[in-house]
Records
---
Amino acid sequence: MRSSPLSIAYIVRDPLPPRRADVLTLFGAELPRHGVHAELVGQAGRAGQAESDGASEGAAPPQAHGMHVVGSLGSRFAAVLSPFWDMLGLLRAWRRTRPGCIQVRDKIASALVAWIAARLLGLPFVYWMSFPIVEGFEVRRDALAARGRGALWLAHALRAQASRLLLYRLVLPRADHVFVQSEAMRAWLTGRGLAPARMTAVPMGVDTALFERAALVPSTDPRLDGRRVLVYLGSVAQSRRSGFLLDVVTLLRARLPEVLLVIAGDAPSPDEMAWMRREIASLRLDSHVLLTGWLPQREALGYALRAEVGLSPIPRGTLFDVSSPTKLVEYLALGLPSVANDIPDQALVIAESGAGLCVPMEAPAFAEAALRLLDDRALAADLAARGPPWVRAHRSYDILGRKVAQAYSAICPPCGPIP
């Protein structure tokens, strides 16, 4: 434990209460064990908003941190008002407990204001970068240009340009420390001039107690009976090329008529889910794809327990190459042999764990790898056995929590060392 506790004022981009595992579990459960407590600052979510990519869910333990919700992401003025709301929340956090540092996650304008506040208060400023948000703005800008949306394009073009200037010229160079999503993101930002010593990579992990296979109950859905089941845990979205999964199933169906893919996850909007259902119908895959929509965590994992193979295709490109997907680590924690494509973090996980097959994101390659695992039960069993011990040693949140706590100990030396 620390010689004295550390409180962090933590401004987050995601809706409050938190649902993402790297906020919910890491800051809500693990870091408090090391004397690190977070005062979360942010906005309430939109009604019915889907926020998680894997099977994680729930509300943070109320005793683990304070929460200061100011404003709502459902407001039409949220993008403009968010920095002001965050500063009000920061003031409330300051009144409740004097923080040892100020940290901002994936917000740019709020980060600049928070940096100024940290300097005035003589506190370290930390930025947590879980996503290349500037590049995300630029993708949105380019999509609007392709659709001929002139006025909207101009607004997004200005936002992207201003965000690039603020983040890469002002915020990141002046941050005392930067937490990043993966080693690939750390290398990418090093190429942009940030010192590697000022960055700590914190990939996505799992709460191994929640993913203990023996403590979970397999699904009793009769639609799975007599089928060779594959599973995909995660969001459905055109930006994630979710139609790729249907291409894989189309190839598998020709050689394995009893194949069934369970897609256990929701879409960010009803339109996206309607698009996926139309794609399934147009390819006549209704009897080979089970699209569940959102499910409680344990129910989704119950479907995964009935599967023989987990699939984790993540599109290559600037946005996702620096990501750290949760679903592959979740499959491994469950002892589910997996097929994943070669974005850097997934390639690293497969190489180190030996618990799956890594192939390019091409439908024939995915189909062949899945068939190999379905046909070779000895190979599948060997890979399944490798997953859980590797996750416990490298990607459990108790391991990641210790790593992050050690980083805070260096950022805020008076708080004492982590044993």
---
Amino acid sequence: MSQRDVKNRISSIQNIGKITRAMEMVSAARLRRAEERIARLRPYADAIRRMTRQAAEAAGAELGSLPILKQHERSDRVAIMLVTSDRGLAGAFNSQIIRAGLRAAAEHEAEGRTVTFFASGRRGVSSLVFRGREVAGSYVGFTDRPVYGDARTIADALMAAYVDDVVDRVEVFYNGYVSALTQEVRRETLLPLQEATILGDEDGGEAPEDDGEAHGTQRALVEYEPEPVEILRRLVPDYVEISIFRGLLESTASEHGARMTAMRSASDNASEIIEDLTLEMNRARQAEITQEIMEVVAGAESLT
């Protein structure tokens, strides 16, 4: 490779490095805003989930008297909602959600269940279509900055599929935000409410609510007006919407964190490649100079 070729490669890699550094800075700024939105939402989301869980426990056997609360006799139709992004260049951010969703679908299908896919983000939709999976609901164009209306649109479709007896179970897969360097795949069951993640011990922040006698004393003092089932009629749509919205926000923050990390790694790799090419160019220049000196010496000797 000539010196000109090496210089051209160095120049192109430097341009790529500038782009990756700019993308890293943009992702870092967007990540800070996404973290602020999650911090504001989490207390409200935890309160809605806690209220819904307490009302569901108080309703007891009456839980199935409403269509949205009724647990289907069948349990062989599952809706899987994948929360991905519209853009790539974020490492394994999208692929790990798609793999987790497809793995869960394979498990359900191995047990004789049918799976219906819903997906947000162009990456998830295109990957499912590429794999020959039919997508019952696709939602794109907002993953950089989702709003509550986007979550409501998705929640309405999922609740309609459940109430209309199209599916018997709704599961959501998204990247939970831990830190800029760490995102974890989370799998939550939204419906039926009797099997929802909300009724388990998902949120560590809610543990004090479940402390033995103190919890029993608190529960004994609660009086519901109107009845718990009527409260759930109003709470469950909010619970589904806020759960979807929380997943969208967590996924957005995770996306920016993953992209920031990926672009930083790309910038570091570009710097290393430039160092290697610069060393290669210097060696080539040194070889050319040595060759020229040898030619001059040989010419001088031939004249003597």
---
Amino acid sequence: MKVLEGIVVADLSRVLAGPFCAQQLADMGADVIKVESPEGDENRRWQPQLPNGHSSNYASVNRGKRAMTLNLKTGEGKEILHRLIARADVLLHNFLPDTAARLGLGYDAVRAVNPRLVYCTINGYGEKGPLRNKPGYDLMVQAFSGTMSTTGFEGGPPVRSGVSFIDMATGIAAYGAIVSALFARERTGRGAWVHGSLLETAVSLLGYHAISWLQGGKLPVKQGSGSASSVPYQAFACKDGHILMGAPNDAAWQRFCAALEDSALAADPRFATIRQRVDNRDILIPLLEKRFLEDTAANWVEKLEAQGVAVSPLQTLDQVFTHPQVLANDMLVEATDVDGAPMPLVGMPFKMTSDAGDSAPSGRPVPRLGAHTDEILRDVLGYSAQDIRALREAGAV
């Protein structure tokens, strides 16, 4: 048993943030119904395409769902959606506010159909304000939110984060909001509207950079792999690769010097405190860069770890998904495609063990477009075989 078994989710979202939220709901046991237009989620066509016919983007956020197609340009299609909303516990979409209203999917409209519904909306720039109807992808919000101003090297061009972290973090936040609303419903018997956006997620993730500006008037400076608040705390080139290490307090600095077997460095008054190391960054970093080039990455990792210094090799994904630590924490999971072929996927970002049920990735594979349309119409919404044929003839599904 899983804790969300019995919960029905109508997932009308597309691309990454909403689908990732819905995938987590599916992993926790919800029956997630992925509703797509006859053309499908645009994410299905993004590159690269995998040998099994899915795009890597689509496959990364849509496991565990049942998929149906629905043509909302037809009256019959709108009626099907109306019946699904009446049956669902959760409705998730990322239409722009005015688009949602035009489709009859505004909060007041869906609440009138189902007062117990948890209604979750995700968009680029938020539900209020002059940009509420502005489309937003992760890249643009990285720029707009100020996140990109902290990334890269001083004087260099804008640098995108290599992962779509705003999209994915928004999906995690929306999952928490939906589960919170379901918990509240147990107390009140009523649903709720939870709404988030890429912008709100990104601004909240600015964290200490935001506080430094708001309370100290100091804008962040691009530091490459390093940090303006701690030295040494960055990447260093070794004989055969890179390591990333950090000594973010004075005790860690002494352990770091012990790993380097450099008593003179440990005693140097210019580097005695974290404030002095930050102030003398331009002196200290070149000394360390020269030292790290004297040995291999593996040897430096061994020496630093022996002294309890935080350190990591710079790994590529082939190393990540074969590392025993990653495997031990179930971050590589195996599903089976509809043809029986193995489908390796990424594990859940959290785990849960309780008397009410455990967490585990859904065993249901990534769905093909419209794969479960008839099944959902019949088993969830109560349409007869004759009704389904008529709906197909009308182009509603």
